[in-house]
Amino acid sequence: MSVLSLENVTKKFGGLVAVNGVNLTLEKGDLAGLIGPNGAGKTTVFNLLTGVYAPTTGTIRFNDTEIGGWKPHKIARAGVCRTFQNIRLFPGLSVLDNVRTAASTQTSVGLFPTAFRTGAFYGCEKSVTTEAERLLDLFDLLHLKN
Length: 146
What we know:
Elements (H helix, E strand, L loop, with lengths): L3 E10 L2 E11 L15 H8 L7 E6 L2 E2 L5 H7 L16 H9 L7 H5 L3 H20 L8
Helix pairs in contact: 3-5
């Protein structure tokens, strides 16, 4: 079972074909790079993967679920995220809080528990902090969390 696959994915903007018939399959543990000259469609492929654009034709699957055309927040919740070359951090937040902000896309408590700081809210906050610390430790950055 592939983790991520693009099958004959094409993206057109009017008469301009930005990406034409891309096929890619990534299995668990694969490491891949997408390289090419300016204008080759690399950013468009990432925008397709993360829901910024919907494919004109073809299918995009994540863990055997069709995600092509999903909204970006739904794709992020499913586990497909991206970063940019010029990342934007929150300068007033600690390293841990910056990572917690990204990790919080994987959880949803709801407005009521958040507004009234219920047990569900605090449980979610604890799990997000635990995951953020795990990720910082994975990259040997835990000592920089504060």
